[in-house]
Amino acid sequence: MSVDPDKLQPPSRPELIDFHGVSMTHYFTDNWETVQNFQARPDDILIATYPKAGTTWVSYILDLLYFGQTMPERQTSIPIYERVPFLELFAPPLFSGTDLAEGLSTSPRLIKTHFPVQFVPKSFWEQNCRMVYVARNAKDNMVSYFHFDRMNGVEPDPGDWSNYFQKFMDGKLVFGPWYDHVSGWWKKKQTYSKLHYMFFEDLVEDTGREIDKLCSFLGLSPSAEEKKQITGEVQFDNMKKNDMANYSTIGVMDFKVSPFMRKGKVGDWKNHFTMAQSEQFDEDYRKKMRDPTLQFRTEI
Ligand code: PPS
């Protein structure tokens, strides 16, 4: 299916629905049977995140690691959302994640999902596929998601900030509660060895180090020169001005409201949370996040 994003003009923002106990919109459930029956291949790599945790960043890193040298033309001609299809996205006739993934001629295929771990199609587990999960601290994740929902016409209306703050804590955002998402994938790591769990904050702190860890997980050994080049290309300012990575070619996003590549920082939550909200959030967080082995940094 070819993508002409400018034609993707939704009639109205979708409603949030309860889908197998997780808040979703029809854009991610309408193709459920096909998604669940998707046939993964052993070398497929699934990039999984809660929305706004660094999906595009890691997708771009992986695309450069695998194809930066061999298919350099990809970098200037194919937007990241076509190189790394969003498996469950279904907005016919323009977008079908499964069609895009099936149409990929690359090996490996890089595939994106925002599913909580229990929704991942079974063939990915059966084929023992590698998976990269990226997690971001809840406060920054919430802020980023808020601005995204403001500017993206295929997301439910976010309302104002205080309203959104409550919705995040209640898990009433698309793809459900952040808390269950990051914890569910973290737990999976204990039993599924082909899962690399990484943190947005670590990537900001030392992108090169995180690329090294990714390479060792993926069994890749790029030259020092290549690694340096990739590390440079995926810096925020470079991705922000790269039309193949910054989503500027998508018609449903209004960059006048907020750009996709917004700030790319750790700690922007401090510009949004009031003191009272931060305290209320922290108290609620302690009750929900009981596993001491899963720790996030809200500043670096
Ligand atoms: S999506 O829509 O779920 O796929 O969004 P996702 O790509 O997961 O997250 C978008 C946020 O990631 C930031 N980003 C980056 N930060 C630093 N460096 C680089 N290279 C980079 N690329 C993307 C992007 O700016 C969004 O975060 P905020 O905080 O809104 O700026």
From TrEMBL:
Subcellular location: Cytoplasm
Species, as recorded: Anabas testudineus
Gene Ontology biological process terms in this record: catecholamine metabolic process; xenobiotic metabolic process
InterPro entries xref list: P-loop_NTPase (IPR027417), Sulfotransferase_dom (IPR000863)
Keyword entries, A-Z: Catecholamine metabolism, Cytoplasm, Transferase
Top enzyme class: transferase
Keyword Transferase in record: yes
Protein name, per record: Sulfotransferase
EC number in record: 2.8.2.-
